[in-house]
Each structure stands twice: as C-alpha cells, then as structure tokens.
Known about the structure:
The protein is 29% helix and 12% strand. The protein is an alpha+beta fold. The protein folds into two domains: 83 residues, no CATH class; 31 residues, no CATH class. The strands form two sheets. It has a two-stranded antiparallel sheet with strand order 1-2. A two-stranded antiparallel ribbon has the order 3-4. Strand 3 and strand 4 form a beta hairpin. It is flat and about 45 Å long.
Amino acid sequence: MMARTASVSNQRVESMNLLYRTESAKGPNATFISTWGLFTGPRGRYASSLPDTEGQAVLVRSQDGIHIALPAGGELLATFVLSKLEEEGHIRLCGDGPDLFATPASAFAACPAATAPHPS
C-alpha cells in the first residue's frame, strides 16, 4: 500500500467536503455538517489518531484516509453530529449514556415522560 502524506489526505478530504457542501445546499432537507476540525491535529492538519479523554492516542481514521475508525472515531463523530443537529433544532436528544436517543424535534413538545432531556 502506498504511504499517505498529510497533504494528500487533506486535499482528498477538502475535495470531498466541497462536493458534499455543494450538493447538500441544493436540497431543502439537507444539512452539511463540517467535521474537518473534529478530525485534525493541533495544526489543523489531517490526523489519523487523536488523544482520548485520558490523553491516550486513539485511532480515529481508517488507513484509507477518509473513513472513520471504530470505535473511537465513530463515537467522536456521533457525539458531534447529534449535538449539531440538536443545536439547529432538527432533533431532540433524550436520555443519557447508553440510554441516549434522538427524536425529531417536532415529534414531542418534550422528551417522553420516562426519559429526561439530554443535558446540553
């Protein structure tokens, strides 16, 4: 496998993000959420690993330079996207931890009685 350099990966991701941003702008029910800053290192460049909550480096990107590595990258991405969708009023987060779930913002005036709103 050919070794990837940070500049090649940056260019590839930037090109894909431009395509996604352009296409999502064409539809009224599409939202582009940039995750570029979420998966970059201290200098704003591509990072395959990032520190976790305990400061240990964990793999967040797969070897292809595009896809997200599981579990750490997936958890980071899911948390970020859900919070952005909630901020924009698209969803409502209810519960917490393993009991966290999302509902369409228009489905309930509040979270179902059995759950508490997610602490934002």
